[in-house]
Write a structure and sequence with these properties.
Elements (H helix, E strand, L loop, with lengths): L1 H19 L16 H8 L9 H6 L9 H4 L4 E6 L7 E7 L9 E6 L4 E10 L3 E5 L3 H5 L6 E5 L1 E6 L5 E7 L3 E4 L11 E6 L7 H5 L5 E7 L2 E9 L3 E4 L5 E10 L2 E8 L7 E6 L4 E6 L5 E5 L7 E10 L6 E9 L3 E8 L2 E12 L6 E5 L3 E4 L1 E3 L2 E10 L3 E11 L7 E10 L5 E9 L3 E8 L2 E12 L6 E5 L3 E4 L1 E3 L2 E10 L3 E11 L2
Amino acid sequence: MKAKKIVALLAGASLCVSMLAGCGSEPASNSSEASDSTQESSAQESGSGEAEDSEESEEEPRQTGSTDPMEMIHQGYYSWTYPVDGMDDMCAFFHFYEEQPVLGAVFYAGFAWNQITYAGTYTVEQTDCPYNVCFTREDQMADPAVYTEGTAPYTVTFFDFQGNELGKCGYDGEFLYNDSPVDGTGGGPAKYAHDTDAASKYASTYEAELGIAYLDFVAAEEKTSTLTLYHNGRYMDMVNMMVEGTWSMAEAAEGYEYTLTPDSSSDTGAVVAVAADEATATYTPEGGEAVAMVSTVSAGPKAAMEMKGTTPIPGQEVEAEVVGQLFDDGNVKVTASAFGSVFDLDEGTWTMGEDGYTITFQFKNAGELVSGLGEAGAVLQYKVTSEIMGEVDTELVISIVESGEPKAALQLKGEIPVTEEANADVVGDMYDDGTVKLVASAFGQEMELDAGTWVMGEDGFTVTFTFDNAGEIVSAVGESGAAIQYKATHEVLGEVDTELVISPVE
């Protein structure tokens, strides 16, 4: 079973590589991921025949089955197209899905034949929205480019799946005036025409819409058991075997419940309970045992530090953001991001010097580089030649990644006897959010001793603790330095009376 899953994983990986390699032609059609909205709208389409180019379609917009912009937006696609010498026509498009429970309305934007993609949610409001876009390809290619200003009666606002706003643009039903940051190579700012023609010459590009991961989980005890939910309501289940199907979601008492329905009646469906923070999930197959899963975002090495800078994009007036992540397992990865896509630049390892701030990197592409101190603090002058980005020579500013979780600022340490010959170690973590937790460990086992809060006095060294079990205890300075005399009754350890020394976290 495991071998079959690994073969399926490798097959999926090679498919992704083939879809992303080069942009000289349209990707192959992926009809399984196409929305039914194309078929629904085509049944209402009164016209027929080959689709016209973008300029012609702008002069005579295709008619849809509805004239209500609130309904038209999820019928068919909104596309900006133009010929490219020696290639298939460039086609940038937006696909707006109908609203679904809990998640809301989902959008997909594909540029450069689906090699630059966005996915998230959107809203449409009947609110005026100013726009400044190119109406034709000739306008876009003019020097300088010719923009047309106007005001659309509707506003479309784009969000990522975490609820962060990506941008907004104007809309009137027949056209989407996209001058938002949701853009890609050759995609705008431009006037996108409504395309509801089932026989559109761009149908294969629409159908090649890539499934963008909305949620991605891996089993806590089996790394080849994965579950990915895609933006288009599809999923890939690798918990037992490679199962594809559709998903739906609903709110639950402590998060969300996803129902997985396989395409084939011979495959097994499942229910997935996802925590409110989407960090963990419980996968329960029909008639099977529950499997604990964790988000791939929270699984594996964590970024302890990061480096940030920018680099010019060849042939473009904008710059790409360069980000290096220094993981807590000693590995480092450098990427460049632009137009919604992320490109790998380099990878390697990093070590911190004895001085506590100089970092030595061993990159596969850039070789050995050592950080220094600049006006912005700790920096790395990163130099490398990239197939995509060309010559990269940029300063990356190094900073600590804030995890958002409380960190131990100080520690309490001591011992308590558990037998005549052995003691248990007691460690108390004093977190920077003002909480404290005491743990006793002996014979390879740990047990919680106490918990509570702590406050530093105005003198800068006296600490007042308020424990759940031991009550209030105030530190004092003795021969070992700042310490507390901890006294409490514990169910397992009995009467505890020991000195706990306060020290910085090692």
